[in-house]
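User: Show me sequence and structure for the first protein, then do the same for the second.

Assistant: Starting with the first protein.
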Amino acid sequence: MTQPVPIRRVPGHRPHLLDCPRPPVGGARMGERLLHTALRLAAGGLPVLPLRKGKVPFGNCPDCRDSACGDRPNMKAAGPCLCPAPCHGWAAATADPRVLTSPPWAAAWRQAVAVAYHPGGAGLTVVDLDDAAAIAWARQALPPTRTVATTRGEHWIYQGTTRSVNAVRDGVDIKSTMAYARWRGPGTGTLAPLPDAVRALTVVKPPAVRPVPRVLAVPAPAGGGQCPHRTPAYLERGIAMAERRIAEARSQVHATVYRAFLAVLSTHGRCGCLTDAHVTRLFAAAQTKGESPRHCTDAWTNARTRLGL
């Protein structure tokens, strides 16, 4: 029988909650390895949750769908929901091992492909840098801190919280309160206090009201308001393309949802083609990616405002 290996600790040293060793790989299934990682992170005080295929949170259960439950107490529209399943994305993140190993969560771990954590719940902020240009900007504008390599860029982690905003600059997202970040390892470097430069980025106008590429700006249709393309096939193709664009988003989900809504409205918003059923489909696609009904409504309203509808 294999004996456990004792962990050697330096007297008086208390590891930071981000200092989680990588789990053993062995022959364990992916779900078991991810749960092992989640429990180690939770033991250090980091609220965690599983991510499904597509690296997004699991969808809400039937009782919580469309926020019918009233939402969780820690959400923006605080409600009474105490669902035992990992519903409501980041708001379900927890450091309670009893919850993480409970039957409703066990089912999610078996299908999980990654672990995420709620930075704000641990007093942290993640500056998500998507590409080399964003990294170069951060090295010039921000103080060095704990850095974690990602597939395309880096996560710069700071001690302190702020509001979460996507696309504050090209290739830069801020993830802290009411957000999740994928766990990619402990990283390297010393954790630094959250600088004012990052806080300042979160008070600029959100991406939904910023100017968008000209290709999305379509003039009002001519012909006295008559629809020049009122055919079911044309409209269905446009809605399907918007749903697919949202479903394929791997980052900056809110900005992608906004642009998809804008594209649909720029083509069909003035001629009366759209019905409640079409809007419901678009909102459902966005909520599948973790957007709340409130965020969907905001994106839709901002798109209409942008187009003067």
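Switching to the second protein now.
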Amino acid sequence: MKRNKNHITALAKNMSEKRYQKVKEIYARLTRRYRISVQQTDSNKEVWNTTTSQIQSIVILVVAVAAIGFVIFSLFAWTPLHNMLPGYLKSEARTQIVDNALRVDSLSNQIRLREQYINNIARILTDDIPLDSIVINDSIAASLDSAQSWTPDILTKSSPESEAFARAYEKEEQFNLTMLPAPTEGVLFHIPIKGKIVKTFNPQQGKYGIELKAARQEAFTAVLDGTIVSVAHTISQGYVVAIQHNNNYVSIYRNIADCLGKTGDKVVAGERIGTLGNDSNDTAYFELWHTGIAVDPLKYIAF
């Protein structure tokens, strides 16, 4: 019995020694140092070298992975990047996105309206205005285009006096561009240029302003406070300046030889914006527009 016990003890001791030797071999393999060298391919010259072991490489790799994971977690946890993750968008961010979309849509509409406004100004400056677009604003003038555009009520017969009054009224109002008077209360217009009127307002013949004979190098002046919205130069009309005023008025000055303003400049009533040419044949041309419709300057300005 004592012999069997000693045999078992010796066997266990032998197994423990073998296990210890195996662990020792594994540890020795993990801690064995290796040399890593970087050499040039053409000369085999060593550029860089270092020594490491397997266990050291494993530790460095684990630390690097943990550091990268911590950096990524920090970026998504404490920066706005977490809003990019599905399901993590806050209600405030959603509200801000919707508000920004509405602002962009509103700005797009404003840009579209401004482009239309600039195109209208450009058409005014180049006289590219269809006559129908102006006459159509006056229902009475439009009715004169057709002799049969007006028909009496079939249930009543108008008297000769009523028909005579209607014909006289239509004849009187046929050249009016609008039936609503422009707001001129409290608005005092300055004379655009001193001179003698040689051509009057006549939109039916394409005359949307008045033409004046002025002295050589006579000054053009702004009729109201406003902002210069366009300065263009043409061969036939020299400088053409358009000024936007309050109450939807736009004044246009043509045949300017020397222009003293530029687009975006603020001007006050009576301020000089240019001069007429030095040729005795030069004439000044002035237009006044209200809400996109040409109006007779003689009804607003005392020349």
